[in-house]
Amino acid sequence: MFGRAPKKSDNTKYYEIPGVSKNASPDDLKKAYKKAAIKNHPDKGGDPEKFKELAQAYEVLSDPEKREVYDQYGEDALKEGMGGGGGGHDPFDIFSSFFGGGGFPGGGSSRGRRQRRGEDVVHPLKVSLEDLYLGTSKKLSLSRNVLCSKCNGKGSKSGASMTCASCQGSGMKISMRHLGANMIQQMQHPCNECKGTGETISDKDRCPQCKGEKVVQQKKVLEVHVEKGMQNGQKITFPGEADEAPDTVTGDIVFVLQQKEHPKFKRKGEDLFVEHTLSLTEALCGFQFALTHLDSRQLLIKSNPGEVVKPDSYKAINDEGMPMYQRPFMKGKLYIHFTVEFPESLTLDQVKALETILPARPVSQLTDMELDECEETTLHDVNIEEETRRRQQAQQEAYDEDDEMPGGAQRVQCAQQ
């Protein structure tokens, strides 16, 4: 009697959990599992359910027979007994066996005692406004500490170590310093003998590769993907890629975007701003110019017939601002701030010609007799910011002289009598 073949069901979930394709090799699967497991481990603040699902997916996909059954018939077939059920093992055991008997890289059970977390490594990454508009990828070469492969991060050939006699295994030492009579300052600092580890290794037993340091230097190239619309100060994180250390959860490498100043465009959120100066003729009679955008497109900017552009006015072009992060097909606005450049002076003929074209001047409300009684004045050009700054400086100097003059308080007192 022949059994009925199980019906097909979803067979993509286990590939989506670690983020690999259906034709991923065992090495690709291991790399993806390692990165995701470190990121989602409960001891590192990860989601326990995601960690469990990741272990279940890895258990199935790492077994050729189970993977074949899953690819053909999906998760239901595994649960019904074909090729063995998925997720039957403790996810922490899978994690420990994957990293060679330890919890996180460096040894020690992750559930036996809570491991300290290594520091994150933060790097600034300078990007242009064009990079943030178009998106880009940058390859960066970095040096990091990794656990010595020869001794598995033990530092010794035998895997043994001794308690540091100098600090009694605490990794810290206390020193006293006399500050004066009956005053003593107590300071705590890492032990110099064991470099704060609390253990020492004999010279004969030191690992020949890492010289007892437990870690070695490794160069690694990271490809940083800057997505369209990212902001100045935004962080791009590579989980578990910082310096490794024994009994330590590896920290992250974090790149912080630093936008370089652009000579033409200014960015405010999802909008772009650009300055443009018009001559008085252009402001009154019309203008037309080409603006080179961040993606090298030429935008034709022109006024409407008969339109007058006032000084310090703004015009906006929809959908020509910055792309929105993770919604790059939506864009903000491009604002153009217009400055109008007036001529320095006009000839009498030019004045008469303009008077025939421009609206008439307002009629004076003063009579001839009232005008005769007015005093003539002369106008001077000034830089108001400079005048204000000079006046404030003079006032400050006057105050300083009053403070320094002997008997100043008495002089004030006499003036008040």
TrEMBL record:
Entry-linked Pfam families: DnaJ, DnaJ_C, DnaJ_CXXCXGXG
PROSITE patterns (UniProt xref): DNAJ_1 (PS00636), DNAJ_2 (PS50076), ZF_CR (PS51188)
CDD domains registered for this protein in UniProt: DnaJ (cd06257), DnaJ_C (cd10747), DnaJ_zf (cd10719)
Chain positions covered by the region annotation Disordered: 1-26, 379-417
Biased segments, Basic and acidic residues type: 379-390
GO molecular function annotations of the record: ATP binding; Hsp70 protein binding; mRNA binding; unfolded protein binding; zinc ion binding
Keyword field: Chaperone, Lipoprotein, Metal-binding, Methylation, Prenylation, Repeat, Zinc, Zinc-finger
J domain segment(s): 13-74
Domain CR-type as annotated: residue spans: 135-219
Tree of life domain: Eukaryota
BP-aspect Gene Ontology terms: protein folding; response to heat
SUPFAM superfamilies: Chaperone J-domain, DnaJ/Hsp40 cysteine-rich domain, HSP40/DnaJ peptide-binding domain
Zn-finger region bounds: CR-type: 135-219
Role description: Plays a continuous role in plant development probably in the structural organization of compartments.
PANTHER family given in the database record: DNAJ-LIKE-2, ISOFORM A-RELATED
Protein name: DnaJ-class molecular chaperone
Species of the source: Medicago truncatula (Barrel medic)
